[in-house]
Design brief:
- By secondary structure, this protein is mostly helical.
- It has one domain.
- The chain is built from 14 helices and 6 strands.
- A two-stranded antiparallel sheet has the order 1-2. Strands 3-4 form a two-stranded antiparallel sheet.
- Helix 3 packs antiparallel against helix 4 and helix 10 packs across helix 12.
- The chain is globular and about 80 Å long.
- The N and C termini lie far apart (about 85 Å).
- It is a multi-pass membrane protein.
- InterPro entries: NADH_UbQ_OxRdtase_su1/FPO (IPR001694), NADH_UbQ_OxRdtase_su1_CS (IPR018086).
- It catalyses: a quinone + NADH + 5 H(+)(in) = a quinol + NAD(+) + 4 H(+)(out).
Length: about 450
Amino acid sequence: MYTAADGALSAFGQDPLWIVIVKAVLIFLVLVLLTLFNIWFERRVVGRMQHRIGPNVNGPFGLLQSLSDGAKLMFKEDIIPKAADTVVFLLAPLIIVVPAFVTFAVIPFGPEVNLFGTQTPLQLTDMPVAVLFVMAIASIGIYGIVLAGWSSGSTYSLLGGLRSSAQMISYEISMGLALVAVFMYAGSMSTAEIVEAQDDLWFGLILAPSFVIYVISMVGETNRAPFDLPEAEGELVGGFHTEYSGMKFAMFFLAEYINMAMVSALATTLFLGGWKAPWGVEHLWEGANEGYWPVLWFFGKLLLFIFMFIWLRGTLPRLRYDQFMAFGWKVLIPGALGWVVLVALVRVMSLENTFDRGTLVLVAAGAVIVAAIVLFWPSRSGGAEEPTARPVVVTGDPAFPVPLMTAGAVRGAAAPLTFGAPGGTPTTVRGESGPGDDVRTSTSQEEN
């Protein structure tokens, strides 16, 4: 098991105050610029997928489009609904945005470098429970979403806030469980030490199920398509921020894109080696992990996750809310729990030399296959009886028959429709009806 023998945490807490302020300001500027770039990047990539041009007028290649959109929102009229709780209504966007910035305090962007003549790590701070700090601070944003929906005085905003809180709390559970295996293999919850523990092999490879569960959970946690149920325009207009306008409306999108970068940075740190160069590059180039070059590797991996977010949004339709919640509670959380138990068992056996490595790999692969079969086995048996249509007696005008009411999902073609003819003889429009169809026809008006 990896230990902090090399003193990864000892490099923190030694910086002068002005260096801490400089690093905090740099992180803030990087996140704001990254948000402007990600908005432009998303619009350009989705436009390319849909055979459109995308933003291309403001600035070279349209790079200033996000800046112009922010300026437009800055000068838009600021409206506060009459039924809103004004204080909470104004505080909610801040409660969402501030934690999004704070979480980057423990993300390592690179190794120790010379910054303005001072030797310091490219990380604001670190602590023995840094990953738990990120999860705790990120969960505060849920309060902002709930308060934004409640304080608006709108039913649709309230429903959007409640739906969002249920979704984010549910997927935080599976996300946290996916990280337990990383803690067991790294022997630490410090982000800097977890990066150092991936010198030989990335955890995204040896803990692939945890990586997959985390990636799915982080899409649901950030309310991004196809899991953007809190912003379902079809039934909720716009979700919890329906009543917001101007800069307060912009702050919700700022928080969304920063959270998207945060979960991507966390995935890069915990599963893809953090700021270290891709596997094999350090053997070809000795200075790949020295100086400021690791910043390039870190942001390259982060942008790969950003592209994945955009790709999902441009290709997959939105899920139903019941399907989405059932997937989280019935598939992801049980799967993550089972995987944690398996990793703990394998880890103990490996440390005690109970089995050789080849046997452990075979056992792990077999357990993953069995879990996949159990989770994705069809719930309906092949011989199950299909639900049939429940006929409804037409009591009104036979010229306008009432469609058949069903007791459940009906497979096959619809039953034939029968219309009352003026002469008293029913006219039937037949289709391919399934077995068990019972259709009560309407006769003429005289018979009714």
